[in-house]
Amino acid sequence: MEKKKIDWENLGFVYMQTDKRYVSNYKEGKWDEGALIGDANITMNECAGVLQYAQTVFEGMKAYTTEDGRIVTFRPDLNAARMADSAKRLEMPVFPEDRFVDAVVRTVKANAAYVPPYGSGATLYIRPYMFGINPVIGVKPADEYQFRVFTTPVGPYFKGGAKPITICVSDFDRAAPRGTGHIKAGLNYAMSLHAIVTAHANGFDENMYLDSETRTKVEETGGANFIFVTKDNRIVTPHSSTILPSITRRSIMYVAEHYLGLEVEERDVYLDEVKDFAECGLCGTAAVISPVGKVVDHGKEICFPSGMEKMGPVTQKLYDTLTGIQMGQIQAPEGWIKVIE
Ligand SMILES: *Cc1c(COP(=O)(O)O)cnc(C)c1O
To answer: Is residue 56 part of a domain?
Structure first.
């Protein structure tokens, strides 16, 4: 298959339309058989549930070209399961998990010409999502839904190496106790836009959100989970029912324990103890790990010993091991890599 002529190294994280997308419709209590289609536009009623009451959930994942030229995705079964959880919380029907994986595989295959070559640093970003599509004006769940998967090639997250970022402790909250912080829903992002625009205006790259109940514990950023490295090389990640269970973070914790022989802890992490950590990173599909060099808490600076020039040594090892697994250079745990072709 002939690859598209794209300047892979210089792609950003922006939408580029690709040839095919998968669509399945839910009507009268069941999903239709689904199909790959060419039209990238959606026509819906002005009163569609998603437009009025934000009934929509999504996933984010990537397809990579491995060293030996295969196209693979990473743990798509976990994205399928998480989307099922998200859908249930918003009273949406679940798109069957095996069909979710199949839809991802078919969409990537149909857009194989857009999967960046090995070594370019670029990847094919995959966006599965679903939303209420029939008219809803009285507040209630929609009766009809659409599930879709589209893909878009995205560039290397870090051009010229990962530079540590500076984040601030946000005055805004991301998620309420017993709310929707643990699901991947657009509504969590809509309300985070003001906080991130504010953080950027103040010169920070990201927000560190605290638990909204006590505002003493570290939760996550708008779209990535935290990992910390202690001075004696233990890996610590916040445990909370209001953070989104990142697949990257769960994979990193596994890699730390089983590949690197490090002790791992998932527990409450207090803002007060952040100053004692040696390294800090943000975990998510987009960047895998973004190193954090500095946390600013209302003028008070916490500077990690790993500094502002490069990733800390333990973070780097975690990053290299996980990306090595994803790119096929390191043997993956059973079931982590789904070969597409
Ligand atoms: C998607 C997301 C993450 C990262 O999850 P991955 O599965 O690692 O991509 C973290 N936090 C939030 C709020 C998210 O929406």
So the answer is: yes
For residue 195, the domain's CATH number is 3.20.10.10
Beta bridge partners of 185: 57
Q: Tell me, in angstroms, the distance from the centre of ligand 1 to residue 25's CA.
A: 26
Provide the domain limits for residue 88. Answer: 8-154
Which amino acid appears at position 90 of this protein? L
Q: Answer yes or no: do 147 and 216 share one domain.
A: no
Ligand 1, pocket-test mutation among 208, 227, 246, most atoms within 8 A of CB: 246
How far apart CA 245 and CA 232 sit, in angstroms, is 26
- Report how far ligand 1's centroid is from the alpha carbon of 157 (Å): 15
Tell me if 93 is assigned to some domain: yes
205 and 137 in a common domain: no
**Residue having the nearest C-alpha atom to atom 1 of ligand 1:** 223
Distance 138 CA to ligand 1 centre (A): 31
What total of structural domains would you count in the chain?
A: 2
Q: Please give the average pLDDT of every successive group of 10 residues along the chain, which has 341 residues.
A: 91 95 98 98 98 98 95 98 98 98 98 95 96 98 98 85 93 97 98 97 97 98 97 97 98 98 98 98 95 97 95 97 94 97 93
Name the nearest CA neighbour of 74 among 94, 57, 84, 60.
60
Handedness of CA 320, 322, 327, 329 (dihedral sign): positive
